[in-house]
Design goal:
This protein is of the alpha+beta class. It has helices at 32-49, 132-138; strands at 10-18, 59-70, 79-87, 93-102, 109-121, 126-127. The chain has a single domain (10-138), classed as Roll (Thiol Ester Dehydrase, Chain A). The protein has two helices and six strands, in the order βαβββββα. Strand 5 (109-121) and strand 6 (126-127) form a beta hairpin.
């Protein structure tokens, strides 16, 4: 089943992630759990570049769900182009969508997935309104 990205999605970040030998499982392809690690890498790289923090005394992002559609098997060696999109900003949350493709096969999607990100007051352990600077980026 292919993911249908929302029409109002916004591409906010791209990065290349090398496939490491240790990413593979006994079947010789990237283990399914590693796809979620790739999603985390690109999501956090973007969030930190735009000024988000994980200071336990402040506020910042958490994810409340995550999903992945495995389209093709990634294998070592190679590099993955991760494209990170945002959509559906709400009071305290927004959706992220990520596509993965090999750099040597442009346009061929190997996996697609995402997560709902909730802005959180870490000490209160409650959602908090998206900061204006972040709302401007995801809106």
């Amino acid at each position: 089943m292919r993911l249908t990205l929302p029409a109002e999605k916004k591409l906010v970040h791209e990065m290349i992630i090398p496939v490491r030998w240790g990413d593979m499982d006994a079947m010789g392809h990237v283990n399914n759990t590693v796809y979620f690690r790739y999603f985390e890498i690109v999501r956090l790289d973007w969030l930190f570049k735009v000024g988000a923090s994980t200071d336990a005394g402040g506020s910042g992002p958490i994810i409340v769900n995550a999903f992945c559609n495995f389209v093709r098997q990634l294998e070592f060696p190679g590099d993955v182009l991760a494209r990170h999109y945002v959509a559906n900003p709400g009071r305290s949350s927004f959706d992220t969508f990520i596509t993965l493709e090999r750099t040597d096969e442009p346009g061929v999607i190997y996996a697609e997935g995402g997560a709902k990100t909730v802005w959180t007051d870490y000490q209160a352990r409650r959602s908090a309104p998206l900061p204006d600077w972040l709302r401007a980026l995801v809106g």
